[in-house]
Amino acid sequence: MKYTLNFRIWHWLNAIIVLGLLGTVFLRKTFLSWRSNSEILMNKLLEMDVTISVDQAKVLATSIRAGMWEWHIILGYALAFSVLYRVFLYFKDDSKHEKFSDLNTHKKLVRSLYYIFYASLLFMAASGLIIHFYQELHLSKELAHDIKEIHELMYNAILIFVPLHIAGVFIADGTSEKGLVSSMINGENISK
Ligand code: HEM
Ligand code: HEM
């Protein structure tokens, strides 16, 4: 058994959570963007002979987005638990991860990418919770805003990792590591 059931369940639930979080960001930046929607609202209302100010249009557009963005926070909590559970697995799980020094150069690179990704996830969870609870934590709006900027910057690391990882496991499974993807489903060692 390469990956224990707990590890595999963690992998797939975590994947769903991360994809969900990326989904909420995607919607916020595209179909539910307050910039484009406030313009649509203003223009359409104008056609109906209703004039609203830019500020009023912004209020309407952000309130349309609000229900969707709640999912960023809900999935955000889920991510925080997921990261905690991964730390627990690090100490308590029997999945067979080879020692870093025993890996070949390619696998060392892959493993390093995972470490960077784990560090990014930890940062996203911590910074996300801090900006969500900045008032309770008695932080200034300015500081919360600065942390949000870094949160948004680190989002790019997640955005790069996901397609790279999926392409990577597809390529590996199709070439030198046949059965790699199944190993994350059935847990068995891959036959080489
Ligand atoms: C957002 C989506 C995903 C995230 C965040 C994610 C994250 C991760 C992480 C962090 C690891 C390293 C686990 C470890 O500590 O050893 C891993 C391994 C793995 N993932 Fe994913 N994953 C995602 C999607 C997928 C998908 C869609 C597939 C399959 C098509 C997949 C297949 C695998 C496989 C086969 C491994 C083991 C690879 C290896 O041994 O290097 N993952 N994933
Ligand atoms: C994979 C993990 C995450 C990614 C990729 C991500 C991505 C983002 C991005 C890109 C933004 C900026 C949106 C914009 O202004 O256009 C943002 C804002 C935010 N995120 Fe996250 N996030 C993640 C995890 C979390 C977590 C765990 C929480 C905690 C509950 C969280 C809470 C927030 C909050 C409160 C904001 C500010 C929203 C606002 O200004 O209205 N995020 N996130």
Describe the protein's topology:
Blueprint: H1 5-29, H2 34-47, H3 54-92, H4 105-132, H5 141-174, H6 180-186
Helix pairs in contact: 1-3, 2-3, 3-4, 4-5
Bound molecules: protoporphyrin IX containing FE (HEM) (2 copies).
Index terms:
192 residues, mainly alpha, elongated, binds protoporphyrin IX containing FE
Descriptive notes:
Helix 2 (34-47) packs antiparallel against helix 3 (54-92), helix 3 crosses helix 4 and helix 4 runs antiparallel to helix 5. This protein has helices at 5-29, 34-47, 54-92, 105-132, 141-174, 180-186. The chain is mainly alpha-helical. The protein has one domain (5-186). It is elongated, with a radius of gyration of 21 Å.
- The residue ranges in which pLDDT falls below 50 over 5 or more consecutive positions are none
- Overall geometry: elongated
| Binned strand content | under 5%
How does the helix and strand content classify structurally? mainly alpha
Largest sheet: none
Ligand inventory: protoporphyrin IX containing FE
Please tally the β strands and state the result: 0
Q: Helicity, in percent?
A: over 70%
Number of domains: 1
Beginning-to-end CA distance, first to last residue: 15 Å
Mean pLDDT: 97
Order of helices and strands: HHHHHH
